[in-house]
Amino acid sequence: MGAKVKMKFAIGYQLPDEGEQPFADVIRDFKEYIEEVYFSWLDMPSGRAPLGDIGGVIDWEAQRKLEKDLEVIKKMGIKLDLLFNANCYGKYSLSRYLANLICSTIDYLNGKFGLDVVTTTSLMIAKVVKENFKDIDVRASVNMRIGTINGMQYVSHLFDSFYIQREYNRDFQRIKEIKEWSDLHNKGLYLLANSGCMTFCSGQTFHDNLVAHEKQINEMTNINKESPALCWDYYRNKNNWVSILQSSWIRPEDIKNYQGYFSTMKLATRMHANPSKVIQAYVEQKFNGNLLDLLEPSHEPLLLGYIVDNSKFPHDWFERVTKCDKKCHKCNYCDSVLKQVLARVGF
Prior knowledge:
There is one protein chain. The protein is α/β, with parallel strands linked by helices. Helix 3 packs across helix 4 (123-132). It has an eight-stranded parallel barrel with strand order 1-2-5-6-7-8-9-10, surrounded by four helices. A two-stranded antiparallel sheet has the order 3-4. The chain is 33% helix and 14% strand.
């Protein structure tokens, strides 16, 4: 499998379709590299579509599959991270009902196999978990977009650990400052490595709110039949493809540069078509293929027969994009790299 790495990973749980191997088997293949598995509970809003309910068609086996997988994963010595990371909980956002639901869900899972982490976007949920479950690490979701020391200070009484705002994945001066503050205040620090989202996306709040209410939205007759995410329209224009390189993802070859700042990196795999490919690439710190295959979302269909060949990145890529002033509108470095890594396939 290649050289061992110091970095470990947090992997997003994926409910297997009928006939697919249990997700625990995927985890088993890489267990020595996996620190945590994060998952949402059935039919609850999160940062992705709810598990177990697709347009009213209920997978009645979903809870059995999920619990069996989680039990096996926990027995491997891997931590479990329960997500309450929806951007909005609607009328329930400050309710006693939601607080009771959170507590009863955690009580149930603790009785089954024990939770280690709860990741949330909600200050109310963070407070409820903090007050009622002293042994659980309460973590600020990457969707909160906390990327400054001020932002961490404001909520330091609610959170034990933080996902750094993904837009600062390539800003090592900021990472160093945040790491120093985190260590001083005994806070954990984590990073999402393979997001395919655009940096500082103008539509993120809009899209995150839609995802939080996806179940209700799918019950409506909607005017937009395509993805409401801004990126899917934006990347239909080939002139905008350079923004893919200006995003927050980190190539597998470059994760070694983050050791010492982060002990665990999050890999987005909850909706990925091939989570094993993603995990293996980052474990091995090497990937020969289409870089978009590692990202969630991928946007590969929009590149019209082109791929981003990960093996063709210039040797100075990491140094250049982590030391530049991030004023992309005044620079053409990524444009030049795009010409180098973009490859036509299938013709």
